[in-house]
Amino acid sequence: MSASTSSDTYQPKTNLGRVTNFVDTRVGGSSIVKEFGRKIFPDHWSFMFGEVALYTFVILLLSGTFLTLFFDPSMAHTQYDGSYVPLKGVEMSVAYASTLDISFDIRGGLFMRQLHHWSALLFVASVSVHMLRVFFTGAFRRPRELNWLVGCVLLILALAAGFTGYSLPDDLLSGNGLRIIDGVIKAIPLIGTYLSMLIFGGEFPGTAIVGRLYVMHILVVPALILLMIAIHLFMVVIHKHTQYPGPGRTETNVVGFPVGPVYAAKAGGFFFIVFGVVAVIAGNFQILPIWDYGPYDPSPVSAGTQPDWYIGFVDGALRLMPGVLWGFPFEYVIFGGFTLSLNVLLPALVPAGILFGLMFAWPWIERWVTKDTREHHILDRPRNAPFRTATGVAGVIWYCVMWAAASSDLIATHFLVSLNDVTYWLRALFFIGPIIGFIVTRRICLALQRKDREIVLHGRETGRIVRLPHGEFIEVHAPLNDYKLHRLVSFESPEVQPAEPDANGKISGTEKLRGRLSRFFFEDRVAPVTPAELAAAHSHGGHDEVETAESKAEISSR
Amino acid sequence: MGDHSHGSPKSSGTVATAGQSEVEKFQDPGLPPHRPRLADKDPRAEKRAEKQVAILFVISIIGTLLFFVGYFAIRLDETIATLRLQNFLLGMGTAFAMLGIGVGIVHWAKTLMPDHEIAEERHAVRTEEDRVIAETMVTEIIEETGIKRRPLIRNTLLGAMILAPLPAIGILRDLSEDLNPDVLRHTMWDAGVRLTRDPSGTPIKASDVTIGSAFHVIPEGLNEAEHKLEEKAKAVVLLMRLNPEDLHVSPGREDWNYNGIVAYSKICTHVGCPVALYEQQTHHLLCPCHQSTFDLTQECKVIFGPATHALPQLPISVDDEGYLVATSDFHEPVGPSFWERG
Amino acid sequence: MKALSQKRRHPLAAIALLLMGLLVTGGLYAVAGTVNEAQATTTTYSAQDIEEGEKLFVANCATCHGLGAVGAPEGAHGNQAGPSLIGVGAAAVDFQVGTGRMPMQMTGPQAQQKPKQFNEEQTMQLAAYVASLGAGPAIPEEQYLDASEGDPAAGGELFRVNCAMCHNAAAAGGALTRGKYAPALAGVSEKHIYEAMVTGPQNMPVFSDANISPEGKQDIIAFLKTIEEQGSPGGNSLGSLGPVSEGLLIWTAGLGVIIAFTIWLTQRSS
Question: Where is this region: Disordered (chain B) (predicted)?
Fold first, then answer.
C-alpha cells in the first residue's frame, strides 16, 4: 500500500541501501526498527538470568546438532571396537558405543559432549534462578501472570529436555535411572503396568526406549521450548520490562538503556561471555564419564547413583520416604488383589505436585489474599514483601532438603557420619525446615525494613563521635540525599484485609480463610516513612535515639 | 520499636508505622543527574578504552587459533593424556575466542557508547477503545456464522471434535506388542536351572560358596537367551552363605536354603535398582539408589529405607554333580510393586 | 592421588614386593576340600618368624583378639571386641596390618586406614604367627599381581558386577549402612587389592578363588590400575562422584562466575 508508493519516491544511494530497501519494501522492516531500535531495557544484574537461560539454550542447540551427526540411538547389541582400552571387546548397545566414539574417536567430540552437558546443567540452573528472581521481586504480578505460567511450563520442559538427554547414552548410570522411572511408573494405580510396557515397548529395558527418548529430546521438547520462548519474549515486549524502585522510576515509565546501541551490545556480548564461561568449564571439568560407568546391564550398579541435579529433589524425596513407619507399611493390597504402593507414589508425586502447583497458582493466591488487582511494573525489594519472601524461602528450603537427601550417601562418606542418621535428620528437616525458614526469613525482612526506616529518619551513621558541651557523646548521623531517600521510602506495605461479608451479608468459608491468611501474612509489617514522620524526626534534633522517634511515630499513629 | 496487639483487627500484631495514608508520600526527585565517565572527560582514557577493546578482540583471534592448534596438532590415537590435553585446548581456545568478543563488546558498550539513562512511557496493555471495537467485531462474526441459531450444527460439530482426537491416542496402542502383566510374574528360574556366575555363566558348586562370600548370579543359559537383558532384569540373584544358625527360617522355607547358602532376588522391591551391597558381618543388604536396607538373617525383611516388602527368595538345592540349582521359580513377582501384583 | 600412585609405581616398590615374595618362599596353595576354608594353605614360615610374631601379637593385638587369637568375649554392647583370627590366613594379617587398619585406634563402625605401625618384617612375622594357627588364604603369588598381564576390559566387567555397587564404578568409594563405607581404591597396592578380595576385610564379602579366579582378580587389578594411571580424559574428574559434584560445580563456580560477569556488565563504568 503505502510501501509501494514510498519505494517509488525513495532511491537508495549505496548497494547496501538498495538491498535494505528491497527487504524493507517487502516485509516492512522500517516499522520493526522504529518499534525496537530504541526500546528501553532497564539494567540490573539480576535481570540477566533469563538471558543466561536463553543463551545456554542456543549453545545446547549448536552443540546438540553436532552430537546428532555422530550419535546413533540404537539399542542393538554390538561389541566395542574403539580406542578406549578398558572397554575393548565388551558387549554394549550401539547407542553407548557411538557415545564412546564421540568421546574418544571423534576429534572435539568429547569437548562438544561436555559443552552440551554443562550447558544443560547451567540452562536449568539459570531458568531456576531467573524464576526465583521473578518470584522474590514480585515481577509475576499483573499484568505478567500469564508470562509467569509460560515460565513455569518452560521449567518443566527444561527438566524434560534434561531427563530425556541424560538417558540417551545408555550407560549404567542412566540405565539405572530409567529403571527407577520404570519402578515409579509401575506404582501408578490401574494403568502403571501398561504405561510402563507401552513406554519401554514391552518389558524393561527393551530395545525401544533410547530411540523414543531421542525423538523427544531432539525434536519434540526443543520445539516446544522454542515455541514457549517465543511466547515468553513476545509478552516481554508487550509488557515492557519491570524495574526496581528508584528516583525517576514510576509505574508508568521504564528507565534504562536503548536497545541500539548499548543494550544490544551488552546483551549480544553477554552471549559470547556465557559461551566462554561454559567452554572454560567444558575444557577443564569432566562431566558424565560414561566410560567409567560402563554399558547398561540390569545386574551391576555403581555407588553414588544419582540423577542430574534438577531431578535430584524427586530422587531425594524417594529416599526420604520410609517404606515402613513404626511397623506400618505404606503398601497395601486393596480390592482383593491390587497393590497400592504409597511408599513410591507419595514421594514421587506429592512434593513435586505441591511445588509446581503452588508455583503455578502463586500469582492468583497472592492476588486473592491481598485483594491487589492493580498493575505493578515497579518491583518489590524482597525485604519489602516479607510474607512473599518468607514463603519463597520456605519453599526453597523444602526443595533443598529433598535435594540434599538425593546425595545422602555422599554426605555420609564426606562428612564421616552415618548414612542412616543423615536420612533421619533430613526427614525431620523436611517438616520443620520450611517452618523455621519462614519464621526466620520474615523476621530478617522486618528487621531490614526497620533498619531502612531508621536510616531514613536519622540518616546514615558516619562513625564520627562528637562530645556535646554537657559531656554527652553522640555519633553524628548524616542525612540522606533525595535520591537515596527515595529508594528507601518508595514502597508499599500491604495491610491486613479482614474477611468481609458478601452481598448477602454472610462471610463465606473461603473469605474467612482469606482473612486469616491475610492476617497471617500482614499483621506484622513495617510501613514506609512519611514526610511528616521525617519532619518530626528532624525537629526532634535529628540525632536522637531510634526508640524515641519510633515511639513518637507510634503515638502519631494512634 | 513497634507495638503489640490492641485487639482491633486492623492493628493487631507488631506494626511499626505512622498512619498509612495514600496522600502522604515523598516527592519523586526524578532521575539523578548524569555523571560523566572517565572516557567522557579524558580523551586519553577514551583512547585507552578503545585500545583495550581492540586487544580483547585480538585475544579472541588468538583463542580461535588455539582451538585449531588443539584440533589439528594433537592426534587422538594416542593416550588418554593427549585426549585430555586436546579437550583442554579446545575448551580454552573456544573460551578465549568467545570471552574476547564478549568482554570486548561489553567493555566497548560500557565505556564508549552513551550511558544516559532514558525514560520511556508505558502504554496500557489494552485500551478501552480497542476493547469496544474487538467486542463488536467478535459479536458480529459469531452472528454471521449463525452458530447460536443452529444448535444442530453446533452439537454435531462438538461431538465430532471430541471424537476426532481419539485415534491419535488409540494409534499408540502398538507401542508395545505385549501388554500382559503376567510376564512380570515369571523369570527364567525353574526347577533344575543351575545358578551361574555373572557375567561368565559358569555354574557354581555349593562347595565354592564359603561363609562370608557373595556371588552375583544369573540363571544358566541367560547369556544365550533371546531377550537377554529383559530376562536378566528379572532373574539376577545374589547368593550368600551364612552360618545356618544365623538364619531365621520361616515355616515353609526350610528347604529353600542349602547348608546356609541362600539366594535372593537382587532387584530392589522399591523401584528396581540392584540391591547388591552385601555387608558380610552385619548381614545387611543395601540398595545404593535409595538406601533400602534388608536383613539377610530375617529373610531379607526391610529394616530401613523406602522399600516395603522383603526381597523374594529363590529356593535352591544342589544337583547330582554338586552344582547349585533352583528348585522352582520365585514364589512371588520380583522387583518393584505393580498394580496387578496382589 | 596421582603422586601417590606414581610413588607406588616406583622401582623401589617393585623391589619391596620382590622382597615380600622372597620372604613368602615356597608358599603353596592347596585346594581346600572343606566348605569353610577357601584356600587353606600351608606356608613355610620359619619357626623364628612365628615366635617373633607371637611376641608382637601378645604385645599389640591380644588385648582385643585374645591370647592365642581365639577372639575376645563379647563387650558391654554385645559386640565382640576382636574376632578370632584362627583360619583368617596370612593374607588377612598382611592386608589389615599392612594398610594400617590394625591395630585399631578405637572401636568404630569400621577400622580406618591410617599410617601403618609395623614394618614389613614385623608384618610378615605377625602373618606367620596367625597363619600358623590355622589354614587360611596366604599372601598372593607375585604372578597374579602384575597389572600389565591382566585384561582391563574383562576386569572392568567383573569389577562392575562384583565391586562397583560399593566402591563406585570409578572406584571412588561409597557409603554403607550406619557409618560404614567402602573406601576409594586409588593408591591401594596390587597386593592389598588382591588380599582384600580373598579375605573380605570388615564387611566386604569374600571373593574366594572359587568365585573369582586368580586370573579374574588379576584382570580386576589391571582394570583398576589402568583407570588410575590413565586419569580422566575430560579434565578434572571432580572426585568421580557423579552428578552431585557436577551439580555443585555448576551452582557454585559456574553460576558464581556468571553472576560476577552480570554485575560487571550492568555496573556503570567509572
Answer: 1-44
